[in-house]
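We modelled the chain as a single entity of 102 amino acids. Its sequence is:
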Amino acid sequence: MSKVKVEIVPWLPTLFGAKQSTRLVLEEEMRDGSTVRDLVKQLGERYPEFGKLAFDPETQDLTTHVNVVVNDRLLELLDGINTRVQEGDTVLLIPAYAGGFP
């Protein structure tokens, strides 16, 4: 088993039952060889409101509503949802933002 630090910002913490919506830090115990998919599923089972927003049970993939950063690297630059997490890793969950200049 390994422990992974999960940082959740800015309004997502309310989906985890936090009273403040700015930042929440959790420590998740994961089995060796676990992936980001396993982590998000585990969080979604414990926190169903987050699970509904972040994970599509049909496709077993992330939705477009949450961005994931592992050890300061975007998930897209790693192995996507199959990126392995291990002892000491930090996973950042950020709500997806859209917009820009017209």
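As a brief sanity check on the tokenised model: The beta strands are 2-8, 24-30, 55-56, 61-62, 66-70, 73-74, 90-95. Residues 36-46 form the longest helix (11 residues).
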